[in-house]
Amino acid sequence: MNIIASGNKVEMSGINIGQVNEFVEYVRNNIGKKSESTSIQSSPDVSDDLRKFKALMEDGIISEEDFIEKKKQLLGI
Q1: If 56 and its partner were Cys, which of 3, 10, 29, 61 is the partner (CB 3.0–4.6 Å)?
Q2: CA–CA gap between residue 15 and residue 23 (Å, rounded)
Q3: Please, what sign has the CA dihedral across residues 49, 3, 72, 62?
Q4: Cβ-count burial of 54 within 10 angstroms (0-12 exposed, 13-18 middle, 19+ buried)?
Q5: Can you give the three-state secondary structure of the chain, one letter per residue?
Q6: How many CB atoms lie within 10 A of CB 10?
């Protein structure tokens, strides 16, 4: 999800049900700051997603290159 306001951009991959208020506060605090991209992610979600993509790679469903690209995306690298 990308939120763009007045040329500022906040980027995130998802919101857990219990994180809605945290998300709103984060956007309010960061939308006016000068930055190319700011990411917010919940660490447990990132590690779960990494495990899922690694399993897909090990099963031959996605390539190692696809896994590395997704890993970088999830970690904000």
Answers
A1: 61
A2: 7
A3: positive
A4: middle
A5: CEEEECCEEEEECCCCHHHHHHHHHHHHHHCCCCCCCCEECCHHHHHHHHHHHHHHHHCCCCCHHHHHHHHHHHHCC
A6: 22
- Tokens for 21, please give them: 């208020």
Token readout for 13 is 């991959």
Q: What angle do CA 41, 45, 69 make, to 5 degrees?
A: 75
Pull the structure tokens for residue 3: 């939120």
pLDDT of the chain, 77 residues: tens digit per residue = 666 665 666 666 666 777 777 777 777 776 665 555 545 554 567 888 888 999 999 999 999 999 999 888 888 88
What angle, rounded to 10 degrees, do the helices at 43-58 and 64-75 form?
180
